[in-house]
UniProtKB/TrEMBL annotation:
GO terms for cellular component: periplasmic space. One of its GO terms (biological process) is bacterial-type flagellum assembly. The keyword Transmembrane does not apply. It comes from the Bacteria. Involved in the assembly process of the P-ring formation. It may associate with FlgF on the rod constituting a structure essential for the P-ring assembly or may act as a modulator protein for the P-ring assembly. Belongs to the FlgA family. It comes from Aeromonas lusitana. Keywords: Cell projection, Cilium, Flagellum, Periplasm, Signal. This is Flagella basal body P-ring formation protein FlgA. Pfam families: ChapFlgA (PF13144), ChapFlgA_N (PF17656). Residues 141-203 form the SAF domain. The keyword Signal applies.
Length: 266
């Protein structure tokens, strides 16, 4: 014990000499003065203790992220699939009182797809406080990749495709889910074997070509009518395009519903 004590005194004297004689402040006094946990100073991880508020926020954040994902999958017509959610809350949550009103969640930024890293601002009005949070959404989905090499301009055949399940939240480019078939579409560029296929790799299949005649369907509250028109733009099914009504001569907005057919929406 004495040898350890004398070694410590020697180390302390060396520190004093390196700091030009300035008095050393014991580390325990720095801990007490700054209110810092010793584990933090020693480089050890510090985990916030779970509280009823943090548990409530985790449930609400998970529910919000799940609803956003489910809505998006339904809108796109993609299959429902299993997702994983990792939730991060600011350590300040352990110092906040429970919210007496409904908690408000605001997803930060503009996100086309509801997966990947999604920041949130959590707000309470009674008592008033704000908290930063984040939800990491990982989504596994079966998508199409090439089973063999595909030359530019060639129409894709069933034998050119193989289904593969990938974490789409990690993909840097688009993809085509396996329940949407790209068979018959032509490749915009040369595709290697095993390459992920995205919509940008394919020439869009126009259901209506610019300049051709189209059938315009219109309907509202039980009333329906048809007339002829001319497409002023090309469009695939689901696209909104400009169309000129042959009878009135007016230019209108319509949506492509079938090959050579469009409909107006009110």
């Amino acid at each position: 014990m004495k040898s350890r004590y004398f070694r410590w005194l020697g180390y302390r004297q060396w520190l004093i000499s390196q700091t030009k004689g300035e008095a050393l402040f014991p580390i325990w006094k720095w801990v007490r003065l700054l209110g810092l946990p010793l584990a933090l100073l020693l480089g050890q991880p510090v985990w916030a203790e779970a509280t009823p508020l943090s548990e409530q926020l985790e449930i609400e954040l998970r529910s919000d992220a799940t609803a956003a994902l489910d809505d998006y999958l339904q809108q796109q017509g993609w299959p429902s699939t299993q997702a994983e959610y990792q939730i991060w809350l600011s350590p300040a949550v352990v110092h906040l009182p429970s919210c007496q009103q409904e908690i408000r969640l605001q997803a930060g930024g503009q996100y086309r797809q509801p997966w990947g890293r999604r920041p949130y601002l959590v707000e309470c009005t009674e008592p008033a406080w704000q908290l930063r949070a984040r939800v990491e959404v990982s989504l596994m989905m079966p998508v199409w990749v090439t089973a063999r090499e595909i030359q530019k301009g060639r129409a894709i055949q069933p034998a050119d495709l193989v289904e593969k399940e990938l974490d789409v939240s990690r993909l840097q480019r688009g993809f085509i889910p396996s329940n949407h078939s790209p068979v018959g579409s032509k490749s915009n560029r040369h595709l290697r074997m095993g390459q992920l296929i995205s919509e940008l790799d394919l020439q869009k299949a126009w259901a209506v070509q610019e300049g051709e005649g189209v059938l315009i369907r219109a309907g509202q509250a039980g009333f329906s009518a048809t007339t002829r028109g001319k497409a002023l733009e090309s469009g695939a099914i689901g696209d909104g395009i400009r169309v000129r009504n042959n009878q009135s001569g007016k230019e209108i907005q319509a949506w492509v519903i079938e090959k050579g057919e469009v409909e107006t929406r009110f």
